[in-house]
Amino acid sequence: MIYESTRQSNHKIQASEAIVKGIAEDGGLYCSLDYNKVKLNWEIIKTGNYKDIAYEVMKHYISDFTEKELKECISNAYDQNFLGDSPVEIKKVGEKFFLELYHGQTAAFKDMALSILPQFMVTSLKKQNIKEKPVILTATSGDTGSAALYGFKNVKDVEIAVFYPDGGVSEIQKQQMVGVKESNTYVCGINGNFDDAQTKVKQLFEDEKFKSWLKLNNRFLSSANSINIGRLIPQMVYYIYTYAQLVQRKHIKWGDEINFSVPTGNFGNILAAYYAKLAGLPIKKLICASNDNNVLYDFFKTGKYNRNRSFIKTLSPSMDILISSNLERLLYSISDGNRDLVAGYMRDLKEKGAYELDENLFKKLDCFYAGYGDEELTKSEIYKVFETEKYLIDPHTAVASGVYENYKKETKDETPTIIVSTASPYKFTRGVYETICGESELSDFELITILEEHTGNKIPYGLKNISQSNPHHQDICEIKDMSENIKKFVEKNMKKSDQNV
Ligand SMILES: *Cc1c(COP(=O)(O)O)cnc(C)c1O
Questions:
Q1: Cα(319) to centroid(ligand 1), Å
Q2: So what's the pLDDT on residue 62?
Q3: Domains of the chain
Q4: Which one is catalytic: 51, 59, 110, 408?
């Protein structure tokens, strides 16, 4: 499969190059027009285990890897970083299914892709014969940062710098990041929100001065954000796996349609589901669930994307986003790769903060249903699911669950629906605890244990031993100083490696 930028540049590349680069030179995202030409071997998918399906799916998208290379990536990622045969679990709770994607090291779904991205990166560097070291530059609303740090912290010849909004992530998310000690990691809070950090990261990818400084120091920038195609492809796998599991467990027959309700921020997870649909998975509706930052809800209702609105902090911080980067890829797909058009929308977004789809494109969005859950709905859904089913969900999952309930009331659609469960409730303990038990003065770390005692739901292994130990990283900076801080981090590492020689 060949990839190209969603915008102007005509450069056509293989997956390994797209993975190494992360983002195209013109600021666009790597995409392919061939997603709907993929012919999956459904016989393997019907009976395979998670890793078999992962190989059968990903080989079409990362087609320049050999069988041996891709299989090694898969088993390194999913054997070491998850417990059990399958990295995901599907639970039937009442009438709904919950697809638990949070059984990795940092207890959020980002682990699904960020356990394998470092494998892809190392393999791709070798294939591309690149001797310079990548500096993985990551903006995070909380979960990407920790999952990327855990994924890359022991990877030789790769450095990773993570920027999170100071005050915009949970105590537990923060501790997961600032507690990472490996010398190839750098973590820094910023005075600003996630969009500010993400916008600056994208600018740095286009900043020639900064890039030549890195080049002089034998380095180049790469990305672990969901703008990297190496993150989207592994996410397709669990949608396809889930379908096969529902057939095996006789909840549906082969060929029946299902819906997924996906708590959405940067539009990566739900886009992977859309790609699975393009590959032939019988998905009826993709329910795009937002929180109070409901820019996607407005977009799917009206065809207008407008980020000119205030940024709202919610109980589901990983969805507190006004610029959903991966939507650009959806525009590319529905316009059949009309890159001038996409580039124009993105220019409008940058200059005016808004753009509007033309009528013909808007019509192509009808496999999506959009809804949003405010804080009240989030809390009442956590409460209701726990009271009726003794099943604990996190605020992001609660948004998806609540939006699905509204969808069902509105449409009377009885199609089996899977709620995509993106984080362990213990990762967002305070919101979950206070919803069920009332306000508390205790720290998030103390609340974890109390919540387990109270609900009987088990703390996942990744969070079992987390405590407020001494933070290893303590920097906080202004947005404009991000590049200076990265330079200092790189210089420090170079001094260290000189000493080791
Ligand atoms: C990142 C994240 C999301 C949003 O996923 P996108 O791919 O950015 O749309 C939802 N829930 C949780 C817990 C997350 O960490």
A1: 6
A2: 98
A3: 89-99+235-446 (3.40.50.1100)
A4: 110
Residues facing residue 187 across a β-bridge = 162
The finding on whether 307 has its CB within 6 A of some atom of ligand 1 is no
- The predicted model scores a pTM of 0.95
Phi, psi of 37, deg, nearest 5: -100, -5
Q: Identify whether the C-beta of residue 279 lies closer than 8 Å to the C-beta of residue 271.
A: no
DSSP secondary structure string for all residues of 127-166: HTT--SEEEEEEE-SSHHHHHHHHHHTT-TT-EEEEEEET
Q: Which residues pair with 165 in a beta bridge?
A: 190
Closest atom of ligand 1 to 235 CA is 7
Cα gap 111→59, rounded to integer Å: 20
Q: Please say whether the beta carbons of 260 and 234 come within 8 A.
A: no
Q: How do strand 89-93 and strand 96-100 relate by DSSP bridges? A: antiparallel
pLDDT at 498: 66
Q: Give the per-residue pLDDT at 198.
A: 86
Residues of the chain with pLDDT under 70: 498-501
Q: Which of 115, 155, 165, 211 is nearest to 486 (CA)?
A: 211
Answer yes or no: is the C-beta of 21 below 6 A from any ligand 1 atom: no
Atom of ligand 1 nearest to the CA of 226: 7
**Residues 6 or more apart from 400 whose CB is under 8 A from it?**
261, 262, 263, 287, 289, 419, 420, 421, 422
8 Å CB contact between 392 and 401: no
Strand locations in 37-120, DSSP E? Answer: 89-93, 96-100
Nearest CA residue ID for atom 8, ligand 1:
266
Our mutation pick for probing the ligand 1 site, out of 396, 399, 428, 432, counting the most ligand atoms within 8 A of Cβ, is 396
Report residue 469 CA to chain centroid gap: 27
Confidence at residue 8, expressed as pLDDT on a 0 to 100 scale = 85
Choose the residue to mutate in 106, 422, 426 for probing ligand 1, maximizing ligand atoms within 8 Å of C-beta: 422
Q: Is 110 a catalytic residue?
A: yes
pLDDT in tens, 318-365: 999 899 999 999 999 999 999 999 999 999 999 999 999 999 999 999
- Cα 3 to Cα 14, 347, 434: the distances in Å are 6, 22, 46
CA of 396, closest atom in ligand 1: 11
Cα–Cα dist 215/132, whole Å: 8
